[in-house]
Task: inverse folding
């Protein structure tokens, strides 16, 4: 199995059959890590797929990764890319990075003026966010939409968030502001790497098949 064998795509109705597998993978990861992954119900994930707000990775017909997008605020001025998960079997192939880049690009295309934010306790996700131009911020800089914060109720650390008056938790808040030049330049550099990697992969594949 090689990275090029994993296909990344916007999820749709045809991928609803993977919902239970996605939720089980998220639940198992939360148990192992003990931190930072809020549970979601099947209908919620299904709805993200039907709305074109989810990205899925497949190895043939086998589930290999997932993430979804949600919008917040009356004018959708905030967007999150959340629930990034890759089964243990497929880790180490750069799938998380590809999914993150795909959800980020999709969010930028559909809501170009929105601030994109992330709450995460995972070092790998923080690294991906930083490469795309996200900056660490306080929770006060994130959306005040109550529905977003209710989503944290499914996390094992929700009591910490409550005790601190929603000022901080185990997760780190990170924000991409489209009005910040530094954020834009970082995102351009990182996404450019994807284009270069794609070209190199095509060249290597061509050489391999013409030996």
Result:
């Amino acid at each position: 199995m090689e990275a090029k064998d994993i296909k990344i795509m916007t999820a749709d109705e045809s991928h609803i059959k993977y919902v239970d597998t996605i939720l089980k993978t998220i639940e198992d990861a939360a148990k192992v890590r003990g931190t930072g992954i809020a549970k979601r119900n099947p209908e919620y994930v299904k709805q993200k797929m039907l709305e074109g707000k989810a990205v899925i990775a497949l190895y043939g017909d086998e589930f290999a990764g997932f993430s979804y997008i949600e919008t917040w605020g009356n004018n959708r001025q905030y967007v999150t890319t959340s629930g990034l998960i890759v089964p243990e079997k497929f880790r180490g192939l750069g799938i998380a990075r590809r999914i993150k880049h795909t959800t980020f690009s999709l969010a930028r295309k559909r809501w170009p003026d929105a601030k994109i934010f992330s709450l995460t306790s995972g070092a790998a996700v923080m690294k991906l966010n930083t490469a795309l131009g996200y900056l660490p911020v306080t929770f006060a800089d994130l959306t005040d939409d109550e529905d977003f914060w209710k989503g944290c109720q499914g996390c094992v650390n929700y009591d910490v968030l409550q005790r601190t008056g929603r000022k901080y938790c185990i997760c780190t808040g990170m924000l991409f502001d489209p009005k910040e030049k530094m954020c834009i330049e970082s995102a351009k550099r990182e996404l450019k790497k994807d284009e270069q990697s794609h070209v190199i992969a095509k060249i290597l594949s061509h050489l391999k098949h013409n030996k």
Summary: The domain at 3-209 is CATH 3.40.630.30 (Aminopeptidase).
